[in-house]
């Protein structure tokens, strides 16, 4: 009996130690829950349907940012309108390199594709964007009437200049541009197990300022950010619109073959680009290529073609 009692006491002590060591490992995460998404996203996820038939509905005409997102500050619109076609600069990096977008097609439903947010660390995403631009320039008939593509090959040219090293992931201020957006931004951010700089505040960096302005000014129907190499599609899930990306992600996932049903859970991510875009009422996700060497062009082309058909809701669309 006494031996049993000792065993019970010992096991209780071990359990306490595990809990206390866990708590000491993650004090910041526990204490910094103030700006985290207050919306019960799990509940929203549960009621989202995964119908493959086009279920796209018009976006709300006015983003409910003021009432729902206390961390979001309205950004000024671009002074010049978006060109109907061709290449244009929409801002500059920290070092003054122009940030360039390529518009293909003239339709009102815009699909924005962004490569290189993690610079040289994920340079195959920039290569993929350049291959897509060349493909659609050579095959303009593959852009559906009513749709246009707005492709940003390289959002982080300063990081890209450093090549495929970890520092190539960050911009010239050594800020991680995918922790610098205005929904769920936190002062302590992570990449894998290491702390990375999310910037002094949301949208502190010229690259995220410029792209967020472009998105607000364009009001696209979908925004995809390309990464490597976690092999999967991960929907943005911040604000009251969490859940609106699920159908879009399923369309792209089934056509491309990337896994799309899991949430990203390898480590906590805050202030990401798809989270903020989703909070504007625009479906958005990260597409993680399966390697950091290949562009995986064919399967991503299939995904984009499927997205176009989903947007135009045409039975004859291929
Ligand atoms: Zn990335």
Descriptive report:
Helices cover 34% and strands 15% of the residues. The protein has one domain: Zn peptidases (Aminopeptidase). It starts with a helix and ends in a 6-residue tail after the last helix. By secondary structure, the protein is an alpha/beta fold. The radius of gyration is 21 Å and the shape is globular. Strand 1 (86-92) and strand 2 (98-104) form a beta hairpin. The chain contains 10 helices and 9 strands. Mean pLDDT is 80; it is low at 4-79. The strands form 2 sheets. Strands 1-2-4-3-7-9-8 form a 7-stranded mixed sheet, with helices on both faces. A two-stranded antiparallel sheet has the order 5-6. Zinc ion (ZN) is lined by residues 118, 122, 227.
Which terms summarize this structure?
single chain, 318 residues, alpha/beta, Aminopeptidase, seven-stranded mixed β-sheet, two-stranded antiparallel sheet, 10 helices, binds zinc ion
């Amino acid at each position: 009996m006494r031996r049993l009692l000792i065993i019970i006491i010992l096991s209780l002590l071990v359990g306490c130690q595990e809990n206390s060591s866990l708590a000491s490992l993650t004090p910041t995460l526990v204490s910094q829950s103030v700006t985290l998404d207050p919306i019960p996203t799990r509940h929203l996820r549960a009621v989202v349907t995964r119908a493959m038939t086009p279920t796209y509905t018009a976006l709300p005409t006015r983003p409910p940012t003021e009432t729902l997102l206390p961390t979001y500050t309205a950004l000024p619109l671009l002074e010049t309108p978006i060109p109907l076609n061709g290449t244009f600069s929409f801002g500059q990096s920290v070092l003054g390199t122009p940030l360039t977008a390529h518009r293909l097609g003239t339709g009102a439903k815009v699909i924005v594709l962004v490569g290189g947010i993690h610079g040289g660390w994920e340079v195959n995403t920039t290569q993929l964007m350049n291959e897509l631009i060349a493909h659609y320039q050579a095959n303009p008939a593959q852009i559906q009437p009513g749709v246009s593509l707005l492709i940003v090959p390289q959002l982080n040219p300063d990081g890209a200049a450093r090549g495929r090293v970890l520092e190539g992931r960050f911009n010239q201020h050594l800020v991680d541009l995918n922790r610098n957006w205005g929904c769920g931004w936190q002062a302590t951010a992570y990449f894998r197990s290491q702390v990375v700089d999310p910037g002094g505040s949301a949208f502190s960096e010229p690259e995220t300022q410029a792209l967020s302005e472009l998105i607000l000014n364009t009001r696209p129907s979908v925004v995809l950010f390309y990464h490597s190499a976690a092999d999967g599609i991960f929907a943005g899930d911040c604000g009251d619109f969490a859940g609106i990306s699920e159908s879009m992600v399923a369309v792209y996932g089934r056509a491309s073959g990337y896994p799309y049903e899991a949430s990203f859970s390898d480590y906590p991510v805050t202030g990401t680009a798809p989270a903020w875009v989703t909070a504007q009422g625009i479906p958005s996700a990260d597409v993680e290529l399966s390697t950091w060497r290949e562009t995986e062009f064919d399967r991503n082309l299939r995904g984009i073609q499927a997205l176009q058909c989903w947007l135009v809701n045409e039975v004859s669309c291929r």
